[in-house]
Every structure is written in structure tokens, then in C-alpha cells.
Amino acid sequence: MSCSEERIKHLLDCQSFCAHFPYHDTHFICGEGTINQQPVFIIMNRGEDCEFNVLWQWKTIDHIIQTTERAAVSGVPLIYIQDKLGGGDTPFNTTNVFSEDMSSLLLSPSGMGKVSASLARFAHRNVLISVILGPTSGPLALPLMLGDLVLMTDRGAFCMGRPDMVKAMLAEASDLYSLGGATMHARHSGQVQCVFEMETVLFSRLRTLFSLLFPRQHTINFTQPDEVDVNTIIPTDHRVPYDMHRLLSVFIDKESFFECSPDYAQEVITGWAKIQGNPFIIIANNPKYKGGAIYRQSATKMVRMINLATKCHTPILFIADVPGFMIGKVAESSGMFLAAAELFKAHVNCEVPKLFLVARKAYTGGVFALGGPGFNPTAVLAYPQANIGVYSVETINKIMTTSLNEREYHVLATLKYEVSHPERLKDKGLLTDVITISQTREKIMTYLFSDSADPVNV
Fold first, then answer.
1. What is the pTM of this model?
2. How far is it, in rounded angstroms, from Cα 175 to Cα 354?
3. Domain 3-208 is of which CATH architecture?
4. CATH dotted code for 221-449
5. Is residue 139 within 8 Å of residue 325, measured between CB atoms?
6. pLDDT per residue over 362-421, tens digit each?
């Protein structure tokens, strides 16, 4: 069995694959099949099954474009799989693509540009998942970055320019994996969401991911979360960090969490989970890192998940423990306002059930960043110890020590009470409910998976 056939066997349902074209004289296999009975289109280069052949380039481009367009018409997901052509021990070298056709491939309306354009049009409305199993660079790597999700093995790598090009043009010494390996893209650039040691594990986890993105039927069998002392999870002192993962484990189905980008922008947690077998997306601040503040990177990470929820019609639970958007010179120079704008656009374009829950605190722009009132959540909930407001209690206390007249002092005293007493906000109609941690699982079912899952005005 060839390498390509092995990969299809691991990824797709048994005997479900149908090739669109003969592939003995092309670099890619293009076709369709199913994953967990969900239809899916596949574009996969043949890896070690073939060497680069200059005579195959135009046919390969045509096959990729045709399959992408067929997938767009069908409206089903597309998986684009890239690997280095040639045997596993063959050095990575893109200079072997030199040919007399290079100018035509670059400038022809039906050349390489059309591959990227076709995939970009497809990804605008449909789910595109990129899988990187070996090294690639330049124009071959560009289409991969259009993916809603990018999965990679430790052997995979991608970069704009090869190390020899970087050396020649910038006089910088580098190697392929420092430029574009798993550590670089999963921890620093954020371009890769999941990394796996072996491709068989990657394909297995991708099948699991498909069951969360495209559930074919409700899962009756599920495991209740372990019972824990909920009083020890969230520190009462709002300045003390804690790991939000501990709170998640209290109410989601046991071992159902599939985290996305766990090593990037760790101040925000994103991923999929289930409650009573129902898949949903979680976007939550994590005070263990940077106090849970929102940086440009964390905003971008949130946008990716919200956009994916829009395409897959997946409900979202937002859990806030956030001081707000990060401030200061570094944050401003990073493009904080641009990132916030993209986040707000993603919120208003996402018309799925969304639940907003304040775990411990939510101040000013942090309320909006997590899809709070104004962005049509199905409910606005808070735990009893939550502080919610424009200012924190500590900030209000500092303001109250300054020169204030009687009216100003009274306004701040009233505001301080409201910020630290969510029941008062509920009485004013500003919160849907104040709940305990033990009620979280029940309330998520009510507001994300029942007839109550409609936007509310509070």
C-alpha cells in the first residue's frame, strides 16, 4: 500500500474515498469521501510516492482548482494535506521546481495564483483544514495558511523563504525548523493550532475533531465530570491567579475537551467540549497567564474560534475573568485597537447561541470582548463572587480618596456596591441570573441547547 493510500485509510471512513482524477501523472490526489459519515473533500500531495516532475505542474494545478470549486458548490469541508515530495530521506529543496514555465506559473490567470484564490474564496464561507506533514515553503505554503485550522506533525515545517534564501538576502543564519517548525508556529506565530508527534495520531484526532465540528447525531453516552470541592477552584482575592482549566473540568463531560492552540496566547483558552454529549465551543480567560488580560494575540486567537463557530453553527460559552484589554505602549504599538475591531466584527457575524458567564471579574472592554451584553448572548450569568463594572473595587477606592464633592462620593459608593454585588445588577435587570458553580452544567444546557437559547435583552 502506498503512503498516500495509508493516509487515506487512517483519515477517511473505510472504502469511502473516490478520486476525482487519475493521479499517476500528477503531484496531488484529489477526491472526496467521508469522516464519521460527514462528506469531505481531500486535496493531498503524494509525498514520498512521487518525485517532482516539471511536466505535471499544470495538470496538478488544474486538479486542485477543480476539486476546490466542486467542494465550494457542495458546501462541505475541505482538507488540504501537504508533504515534501520524494522519499523521506530526500533533503528539502524547493530549487528543484525550477522550470521554463516559472513565469507562466506565476503570472498566468490559471497558474499558482488561482490555486490560492480558489482556496481563499472557498474558505470565506466553508471550513478549510490544513494539514502539514513535511517541510514546505514559499508559494507552496501560502494556501495552507487559509485554513480555519492548521494541524502539523513534528516533522512538518513551513516558512516564507528557505534558510538559504534568508542567508543570501538577509545575511541571517537559520535552519528550517527555527524558521517554521512546530515550536515556532504553535507557540510564537500562532499559525498552527495543534501539533502531533506522529501523523497517525494527527489523523485520529482530526476524526475526533470532525465529530465536534460536524456532529451527525446526538451522543447518548457520556461521562459525568468528577465531583470536586468547588469552593477551592476560584480564589476570592481577584489578584490571585488560578488555572481556568480546573473550572472547566467541573461541568463539561469528562475527557471531552479538545483544546485549540494550547501553547499560544495562553491568557485565553479556546477549544471544544461536550455537555451531555452536546458539542460546543469554549472561549475563556485564563488568569494563570498575564492575569487573563486580552492582548492582540489572544484577541486573534478568539476571532479564529468565533469564525469557526459561525461556519459550523456551533454554540459558544464565553467565561470571563478579565481585567480588560491590555494597555500601555507595547500593547498600543502591537495593534490592540485593530485586533479589538476584528474581534467585535467576528462577534456580530456569529449568529449562534452564545452564553456569557462572569466567573470572577469583567471590567470595561473585557465585557464586550467576551461577547457580553450588546452582542446578543442568550443569557448573562455571574457567580456570586463576581465583580462586574467599568472600574474595579480597588480603582473606585483610590478615586474615593481624592477630592470629591458629596454627590460624586455618593455615586461612587453606589457604583462600588453594584460592581461587587451581582445580585444588585440582577435586580436592576442587567444580569439574567446569579448562579453557583454547581449549577453551571445545568444552565449551559438551558441557555445553549434548549428553546431558551435565543438572544435576550437584559
1. 0.93
2. 44
3. Alpha-Beta Complex (3.90)
4. 3.90.226.10
5. no
6. 999 999 999 999 999 999 999 999 999 999 999 999 998 888 898 999 999 999 999 999
